[in-house]
Amino acid sequence: MRDEIPVAGIAEWLRLLLGRRIGFKVVGDSMVPGLLEGERILTDPKAPLSQGDVVLVRHPYKTGVRIIKRLSSIEPDGRLFLEGDNPGASSDSRTFGLISRGDVIGKVISKI
To answer: What's the whole-model pTM score?
Structure first.
């Protein structure tokens, strides 16, 4: 079972105001049921990553496009394999391959 993403508390709102969090609006159904289209999330660009985390990343082939996926595995060379929680509606590493850690914008830590 996937961990549920918590709702942001006052401390996370303050971190957003201080520029320590990045806000993003969910577009699409690739992370249903955990994240629904139109929901807003906060990411922590400095959080350590581990298998199972939900991350906001730059799309490897579409300039300016950001996507939200679950980190399925970290390969020995440091590249990441990402998957959507809703495989039928997801373009992910099964389609575009592994991504670099440098493409990670941040770890999704809460909904707002």
So the answer is: 0.93
CB atoms within 10 A of CB 42: 23
| Strands across the sheet containing 40-44 | 22-25, 40-44, 104-111, 54-58, 66-74, 80-83
Q: What is the DSSP letter of 2?
A: P
For 10-28, what is each residue's pLDDT tens digit? Answer: 999 999 999 999 999 999 9
The answer to whether the Cα torsion of 12, 47, 95, 6 is positive or negative is: negative
